[in-house]
Design brief:
The chain has 24 helices and 24 strands. With 656 residues, the protein is α+β, with helices and mostly antiparallel strands. It folds into five domains: 58 residues, Helix hairpin bin (Helix Hairpins), CATH 1.10.287.610; 229 residues, DNA ligase/mRNA capping enzyme (D-amino Acid Aminotransferase, Chain A, domain 1), CATH 3.30.470.30; 106 residues, Nucleic acid-binding proteins (OB fold (Dihydrolipoamide Acetyltransferase, E2P)); 149 residues, 5' to 3' exonuclease, C-terminal subdomain (DNA polymerase, domain 1, Orthogonal Bundle); 73 residues, Rossmann fold (3-Layer(aba) Sandwich). The strands form seven sheets. Strands 2-11-10-3-9 form a five-stranded mixed beta sheet. Strands 14-13-12-15-16 form a five-stranded antiparallel beta sheet. Strands 5-4-7-8 form a four-stranded antiparallel beta sheet. Helix 22 links the parallel strand 21 and strand 22. Helix 1 runs antiparallel to helix 2 and helix 16 crosses helix 17. The longest helix is centred in the first third of the chain and has 20 residues. The two termini are 52 Å apart. It binds 2-(butylsulfanyl)adenosine. The site of 2-(butylsulfanyl)adenosine has 16 residues, from strand 3, strand 8 and strand 11. One of its GO terms (molecular function) is DNA ligase (NAD+) activity. Its cofactor is Mg(2+); Mn(2+).
Length: 656
């Protein structure tokens, strides 16, 4: 091997150079060197690190991919909630917003991806968290570290503490390439860039994230000694090689905002990423703070949303899909059609009534529409393009899944074979295991479908009798993956009442209604015995929901399934609140290990280290020669762990 003759200083400079080129390439989309020159810089870094393994820092670009798959994501509470934005849809809404905020403003793009908060401590990326429910999110640091557009280390003039929030996105062209790769390897394709970004970050194997062409754009920064204007903060981030939301401008009037909006709307189709509007913000941070927040959103910012995108497509066929409640939904198969940078092949017609009202025929040219995350829909046929090749659609008389006779119910047609219809059974189990239900990680739709087809499961409770051996009979399922799924099924037994209720799939009981009911009844037994009068006393529960609940709990097979689930070890925590598992600790004094190592080891046992102490701090970790934090902890009655040995601290914490 040729020796690189590098000094430690050269090594550090090389890292800075590579990170700068990552910014030009991924952040600005304007590479300054060719791919081969970039590759040779990386090669030089790898060679140097082989010669000097003692120099390797975890902030080196070579360390982005290394982490092992996680068992699950840790929950982390945001310092400040990650709120969402109120929406404006027209000029009037904007005028109204401007009349309440008469200060200088900025306009920028509203990127359609996944919101992430990146926390830098001592200029190093410490952790990255998803928005989650706005109060707490998931620790996705090992996935975020694989994004070359997020620096692992900031320059010397960056503050000690910096929180950067922004959006992880995937370029439209990269999504196309990713989807063809997914198809070739027999994997599920992503329906839009937002799903691809979220799906890549919210999975447990960093190597998967590393292979996905994700990018990050910051839209806010908080920390010490930052400029007092939002516009200047974004510029400052660029100087630190952090990409920011493109096309930020200062504006001074509602007309100016309209002109910006119209211009961006025109450029939208040719932009490399998906945007769903523009964001208008009050520029000065002190003015933002003075405006404050409503329960959900800042008063100093608003999203000016774009209208849904539409395109012309041709209907090839109509597929009748059987849902978990037996409702049959007509779905149009289309000639592949681009709508706002995404190829659409299926669009819903919602129900039989809509299909007939819109008078859609096979081979019709139709207008299709997609907006954000909503399933694309067929809006209307283009009657002027209709010809003799267009043929009427005949709604089915029998269920496409079980063959039983269908019934018309208002705007729906429904299969009444609730207990035996294979597609209804499959749908119920998929719903049971889904994110807001038992949240069984790794047990996706496709696996459940095969398990049902092979007769291994017929009802949700059968999931708890599955064995590793049975799962390994599935295509492409090794014993390791099967073991993980069985473990996830076991873990899912510890659940909460809202999740349990949602998972049962009672008609009209979504996640919010499930939460509301849990708050009032606290246990499944109390809810089972609730009268229609007591249900209708709850504000937010109407007579229809009440009737569905009474109907559901009056059927013996449902009661038996609930009893069976509980006898299988399903443990419903009576409390409707999800447990907050993150604890915070503050450190003071000297220890036998470096601060970085202590912070890393504490993170592994679910303890997040914070720099400032408050009544809410769970522990003060106190080494030799503590500072003023010790006095403060005593004053605030924060429990103190005294030791300068990391091993001893970990033992004390784990037994506390
Ligand atoms: S500011 C407190 N700026 O839109 C306000 N958000 O609907 C924080 N988003 O969750 C948001 N581009 O993920 C802001 N330039 C931008 C944005 C942006 C996309 C997302 C963000 C947020 C959602 C709100």
């Amino acid at each position: 091997m040729k020796s690189s003759n590098m000094t430690l200083k050269d090594y550090k400079n090389l890292i800075t150079t590579i990170e700068a080129h990552n910014f030009y390439y991924y952040g600005l989309d304007q590479p300054r060197i060719s791919d081969s020159v970039y590759d040779s810089l990386m090669q030089k870094l790898i060679t140097t690190e082989k010669e000097h393994p003692e120099w390797i820092t975890k902030h080196s670009p070579t360390q982005r991919i290394g982490d092992k798959p996680l068992e699950q994501f840790k929950k982390i509470k945001h310092g400040e909630p990650m709120r969402s934005l109120d929406n404006a849809f027209n000029e009037k809404d904007i005028n109204n917003f401007c009349s309440k905020n008469q200060n200088a403003m900025t306009c920028e793009l509203k990127l359609d991806g996944l919101a992430i908060s990146c926390i830098y401590k001592n200029k190093k990326l410490e952790y990255a968290v998803t928005r989650g429910d706005g109060v707490q999110g998931e620790d996705v640091t090992s996935n975020i570290k694989t994004l070359s557009s997020i620096p692992l280390q900031l320059p010397d003039d960056a503050p000690e503490h910096l929180e950067i929030r922004g959006e992880v996105v995937i370029f439209k062209k990269d999504l196309e390439a990713l989807n063809s790769k997914q198809k070739q390897s027999g994997n599920k394709t992503f329906s839009n860039p937002r799903n691809a970004a979220a799906g890549s970050i919210r999975q447990l194997d960093p190597k998967v994230a590393a292979a996905r062409p994700l990018r990050f754009y910051a839209y806010s920064a908080h920390g010490d000694h930052l400029p007092g204007s939002h516009y200047e903060r974004l510029q400052q981030l660029n100087k630190w090689h952090i990409p920011t939301t493109p096309k930020v401008v200062k504006v001074s009037s509602p007309d100016h905002i309209q002109a910006y909006y119209q211009q961006v709307l025109q450029e939208r189709a040719t932009m490399p990423f998906e945007i769903d509007g523009v964001v208008i913000k009050v520029d000065l941070i002190q003015h933002q703070e003075a405006s404050g927040y409503t329960a959900k959103a800042p008063r100093w910012a608003i999203a000016y949303k774009f209208p849904a995108e539409e395109a012309q497509a041709r209907v090839i066929a109509i597929d009748w899909q059987v849902g978990r409640t037996g409702v049959i939904t007509p779905v149009a198969t289309l000639e592949p059609t681009q709508v706002g940078g995404v190829v659409i092949q299926h669009a819903t017609l919602h129900n039989i009534h809509e299909l007939q009202r819109k008078d859609i025929k096979i081979n019709d040219a139709v207008i299709i529409r997609r907006a954000g995350d909503v399933i694309p829909e067929v809006v209307k046929p283009i009657i002027s393009l209709r010809n003799e090749t267009c043929i009427d659609i005949k709604p089915p008389n029998t269920c496409p899944s079980c063959g039983s006779t269908l019934q018309r119910e208002h705007i729906f047609i429904r299969c009444m074979n609730t207990t035996k219809c294979p597609k209804q059974i499959e749908g119920r189990i998929i719903h049971f295991a889904s994110k807001h239900g038992f949240n069984i990680l790794g047990l996706g739709q496709q696996i459940i479908q095969i398990l049902c087809q092979q007769g291994l499961i017929q009802k949700p409770s059968d999931l708890f009798n599955l064995s590793v051996q049975q799962l390994t009979t599935l295509p492409r399922m090794g014993s390791k993956s099967a073991g993980k799924i069985i473990l996830a099924i076991e873990k899912s037994k510890y659940t909460t009442l809202p999740r349990f209720l949602y998972a049962l799939g009672i008609t009209e009981i979504g996640k919010d209604t499930a939460k509301l009911l849990s708050k009032h009844y606290h246990s499944i037994t109390k809810l089972q015995n609730a009268s229609i009068e007591s249900l209708s006393d709850i504000s937010g529960i109407g007579p229809i929901v009440g009737k569905h609940l009474i109907d559901y709990f009056s059927q013996s097979e449902n009661i038996n399934e609930i009893k069976y689930l509980i006898s299988q070890g399903v443990n419903i925590q009576e409390e409707s609140k999800e447990p907050d598992t993150t604890h915070t600790a503050v450190i003071t004094g000297k220890f036998d290990k470096s601060r970085d190592e202590i912070i890393e080891q504490l993170a592994k046992i679910g303890i997040h280290v914070s720099s400032s102490i408050s009544r809410k701090t769970h522990y003060l970790i106190c080494g030799q020669e503590p500072g003023s934090k010790y006095d403060k902890a005593v004053k605030l009655k924060v429990p103190i762990i005294r030791s300068n040995s990391l091993t001893e601290i970990l033992t004390k914490l784990q037994s506390s």
